[in-house]
Amino acid sequence: MSAAAGPLAGKVALVTGASAGLGQAIAVAFAGAGADVAGVSRSDGAKTAAAIKAAGRRYHAIRVDLTKKPDCADIVADTIATLGRIDILVNNAGIIRRADALEFSERDWDEVMDLNLKTAFFLSQAAARQMVAQGGGGKIINIASMLSFQGGIRIASYTASKSGIAGLTRLLANEWAALGINVNAIAPGYFVTDNTGALRADQARSAEILARIPAGRWGEPAELAGAAVFLAGPASAYVHGAIIPVDGGWLAR
């Protein structure tokens, strides 16, 4: 295999939720920028694998259901065993549960918080330990949300988890910048993904959302790629604790 060219040449990225949606788009963009990729998902990620191999890079599928409280150190170790190192982590996997706050269940609270926030922290910890051990620093990118800045409705645990991701991003940036590890986040607006399927199917709610977005449309997953490659690459060397909205202008209105 010929040497890769691009800002991520020679790097290895671990991306959760890589089989579809935003995670898939990020993983494929990383490969296009020169990185090899380990993708964590419940499925085999065949489409992601094909796209990355077409870009001439290696793809290692790690089939783990992150809702089952996996051992995060094992996921990082699996990446190292196959691809040799880890330079980039993207905490993308997440779930959402919808119900009025008066009716919201403890189970729906715990499931969302465990995956969206707890797993993101312990994967970051495991990845950072390896980055320190191998030397050279690294990049950690959390996927935040518009709900990192706003309250929303009927998504209590999701809002809490994404507000937590914003705080965690800043906390880890404060602790790990001196170790050469950049911790930042991307806050996607309203994108065409499985998590927004219910909103897009609700014509009235979808119309309300589109009316507020200056761009006038839902985002496509590939449109998150530029921000992800920037935060994963050398151009963001002095960026720590930032949360970059990619939202079609939602927060500007």
Describe this protein's structure.
Helix content is 42%, strand content 15%. By secondary structure, the protein is an alpha/beta fold. It has a single domain, classed as NAD(P)-binding Rossmann-like Domain (Rossmann fold, 3-Layer(aba) Sandwich), CATH 3.40.50.720. A 7-stranded parallel sheet has the order 3-2-1-4-5-6-7, with helices on both faces. Helix 1 packs parallel to helix 2 (46-54), helix 3 (72-83) crosses helix 4 and helix 4 packs parallel to helix 5. The longest helix has 29 residues, at 106-134.
| Count of all domains | 1
State the CATH architecture.
3-Layer(aba) Sandwich
Number of strands: 7
Strand order of the largest sheet: 3-2-1-4-5-6-7
How is the biggest beta sheet arranged? Answer: 7 strands, parallel
Order of helices and strands: EHEHEHEHEHEHHHE
Quickly count the helices: 8
Question: Into which percent range does the helicity of residues fall?
Answer: 40-55%
Low-confidence stretches: none
CATH superfamily: NAD(P)-binding Rossmann-like Domain
Structural class category: alpha/beta
CATH topology: Rossmann fold
Whole-number mean pLDDT: 96
Overall form: globular
> For the terminal residues, how far apart are their CA atoms?
48 Å
Q: What does the radius of gyration come to?
A: 17 Å
